[in-house]
Amino acid sequence: MNTSENYPLDEQFVIGVDYGTLSGRAVVVRVSDGAEIGSGVFEYPHAVVSENLPTSGQRLPADWALQVPNDYRDVLRHAVPAAVADAGIKPESVVGIATDFTACTMVPTTADGTPLNELDRFADRPHAFVKLWRHHAAQPQADRINQLAEERGEAWLPRYGGLISSEWEFAKGLQLLEEDPEVYAAMDHWVEAADWIVWQLCGSYVRNACTAGYKGIYQDGKYPSEDFLSALNPDFKDFVSSKLEHAIGRLGDAAGYLTEEAAGWTGLPPGIAVAVGNVDAHVSAPAANAVEPGQLVAIMGTSTCHVMNGDVLREVPGMCGVVDGGIVDGLWGYEAGQSGVGDIFGWFTKNGVPPEYHKAAAEKGLGIHEYLTELAQKQAIGEHGLIALDWHSGNRSVLVDHELSGVVVGQTLATKPEDTYRALLEATAFGTRTIVDAFRDSGVPVKEFIVAGGLLKNKFLMQVYADITGLQLSTIGSEQGPALGSAIHAAVAAGAYKDIREAAAAMAAAPGAVYTPIPENVAAYEALFQEYRTLHDYFGRGANNVMHRLKAIQRQAQGNGAPGDPASNSTTDEAERVSA
């Protein structure tokens, strides 16, 4: 541990807090050079609520993913003080704090920011809880939004690659209205968690420009019209004006200043700058000093988000959005993503690996992922005879369809766990290749490929990505890219730097390992990628809608309508839709 005696009394520090899917991580960063000198982690006690409501035990339908907002406050109470203690600095030397969040993660609140699930009358109502980014139960609403927008020729639709996602603000908001209108009526604000946690810190509600643009369909200074919203559902007409619309803050600006209450939680001095909120992926670009056109940053964890600046506006199929100043001022920020990556690997190790493998891994002093990787990397490319689709959590880009599901083709009685594991690793790389190709074909070429996030520690996986994409891959020299990126924004909000570019130049992480494509591997993977693309288009572009039909059958078999609306017939409607 460091001690405060190591640092001059006038040395300044900032704190970045990265809110992930399962935990929050705080990092103390030196303003002058970006050195990370202390960290703390707090795992959410309720994790992801996807099976039963924690208050009543009520069973949740398929594709639901909720969280408990007080878990986010507990990150401030535990991870931030732990990081300061680990750094060994005096709290009064901290001049700013910034946060980033998974997106689109939504909190329904009262006028003062109280989450509705914290009200006694809504404590047992699923729609009163946080809807995590991976909540995909609003797909029917997203389908209607997309269909109507296409029919009407809405100008904002091409900015999102022609499709908006069930993960985003409008689809989730429409689902809330239609499945629990009482909770919807009680909701004063429909708040991105990225903005809610900032509200908790500084007492001011400011919508950040990043989530407003990428997840809130805010383009060219406006949201979708009341006429459009009314055509979706007459009761949805004033969704923007009554639930969503609010002052929008520029990235890197101060949203406000730390309140006495939040100072008590964190142990930090009241009155320090609190930066406008941001998304975990987008803050990682400055952490890698990737603030120029063509530098694609893939933040690889439970899911992967791909962000890149461009100096031209192009319509790229299946993008999560292109937003003016969405990453840094003066450039168009592009976003794409994969809904499942590390989640897929974790699912397989929990459900598809026999006990003797776990035992063998333990005997070698390895984790199960390391053990399977060790076995898989001994194989020649294609030796396992498998090809997989990485859609176990749906497809974010380029198909934007969360009714899609995972596939492994080629399994036989001789298939071993390491075979399937390697095929899943490769599938996620094929998914990234599909995104890179979409950028290139749309006139926004990827010139540099940079990886941040927890999965960069798997060297074999990084080489697979380099070989499949055909791009030199570099990693950032920080395991806490999003938290470092947030700290960079905190430094700007505190006035230490004039803008994000200047701060990134001084504070970005040093480059990490570099992986160069191996020509013979590139050629071998090209044959497998063509098979992946055949399956991708067959199952994902309408040639065979079996995945949609299976989802509808699953909902009917579970016999669950929408929580809060027992009379819902949405499953029947869905079955009719996909059987057409």
Which key terms come to mind for this protein?
Nucleotidyltransferase, domain 5, 39% helix, 22 strands, 7-stranded mixed beta sheet, alpha/beta, globular, 580 residues
Please characterize this protein's 3D structure.
It is a single chain. The chain has 20 helices and 22 strands. Residues 1-5 and 565-580 have low confidence and may be disordered. Helix 1 (69-87) crosses helix 9 (260-266), helix 10 (280-287) packs across helix 16 and helix 19 runs antiparallel to helix 20 (570-579). It is an alpha/beta fold and 580 residues long. The protein is globular. Strands 1, 2, 3, 5, 11, 12 and 13 form a 7-stranded mixed sheet that branches. A 7-stranded mixed sheet has the order 16-17-15-14-20-21-22, sandwiched between helices. The protein has a two-stranded antiparallel sheet with strand order 4-7. Among the domains are: 7-278, ATPase, nucleotide binding domain (Nucleotidyltransferase, domain 5); 546-579, no CATH class. The longest helix is centred in the last third of the chain and has 25 residues, at 417-441.
